[in-house]
Write a structure and sequence with these properties.
Order of helices and strands: HHHH
Structural class: mainly alpha
Low-confidence stretches: none
Distance between the termini: 33 Å
Radius of gyration: 13 Å
Length: about 70
């Protein structure tokens, strides 16, 4: 959840909207699974959410670097 918020705070909504949306969806599904005590599946989705968040952050950083350079 923290990485999703971090991605939002660096501007991923504009720079990497698909990766951010995917991260949110995985996180929401993981929360539902945890409520049903399906922890193994929830863990997998949390890992996917983390990866998507990291991708969104990286894409945002890349976009910002391109803007600064050009």
């Amino acid at each position: 959840e923290e990485r999703v918020r971090q991605a939002e705070s660096v501007g991923a909504e504009d720079a990497a909207p698909l990766a951010l949306r995917e991260a949110r969806q995985y996180l929401n599904e993981a929360e539902k699974l945890m409520q049903r005590e399906e922890f193994a599946d929830a863990k997998n989705l949390l890992e996917k959410s983390l990866i998507s968040s990291e991708l969104a952050i990286a894409r945002t950083g890349s976009r910002n670097a391109q803007k600064a350079a050009g």
